[in-house]
């Protein structure tokens, strides 16, 4: 589908006469601001029916969704596509864990742990490492206390 004639005209104006294009954009911004201010003033002055309130809420919701879509589209254009994000990830295996042999199940769980760890941020990995270190220290101290108490008699 080809672009609209007005779009082509604006693109041509942007290429041929940037100063005129900037003036055009400035005029459009001012007109849009004036229109928004007028709508806002009108909304604040008048009393509203339920249908008008519902209509405004749906309009605001549409505006928010469009802004969100625009944000994510722009973000996707600006980010670099890496090889790993460009390829399709394999789906789950056809075998269920309950149907697997003990060796297959062990391999399956190891892969799941690896995938989960790969998806964690470095901060999360560091926090887990510190927590495990503290747990091992407590366990070691507990074992030493038990060994010391059994060695006394």
From TrEMBL:
Positions with biased composition (Basic and acidic residues): 12-80, 96-106, 136-145
Ranges annotated as biased composition (Basic residues): 107-116, 126-135
Domain of life, source organism: Eukaryota
Region (Disordered): 1-153
Stated name of the protein: Uncharacterized protein
Organism: Elysia chlorotica
């Amino acid at each position: 589908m080809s672009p609209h004639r007005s779009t082509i005209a604006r693109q041509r104006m942007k290429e041929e006469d940037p100063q005129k294009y900037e003036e055009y954009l400035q005029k459009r911004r001012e007109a849009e601001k004036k229109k928004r201010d007028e709508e806002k003033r009108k909304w604040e002055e008048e009393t509203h029916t339920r249908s008008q309130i519902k209509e405004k809420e749906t309009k605001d919701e549409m505006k928010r969704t469009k802004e969100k879509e625009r944000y994510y589209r722009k973000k996707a254009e600006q980010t670099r596509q890496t090889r790993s994000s460009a390829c399709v990830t394999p789906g789950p295996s056809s075998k269920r864990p309950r149907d697997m042999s003990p060796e297959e199940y062990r391999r399956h769980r190891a892969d799941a742990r690896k995938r989960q760890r790969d998806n964690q941020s470095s901060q999360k990995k560091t926090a887990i490492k510190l927590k495990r270190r503290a747990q091992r220290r407590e366990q070691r101290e507990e074992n030493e206390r038990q060994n010391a108490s059994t060695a006394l008699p």
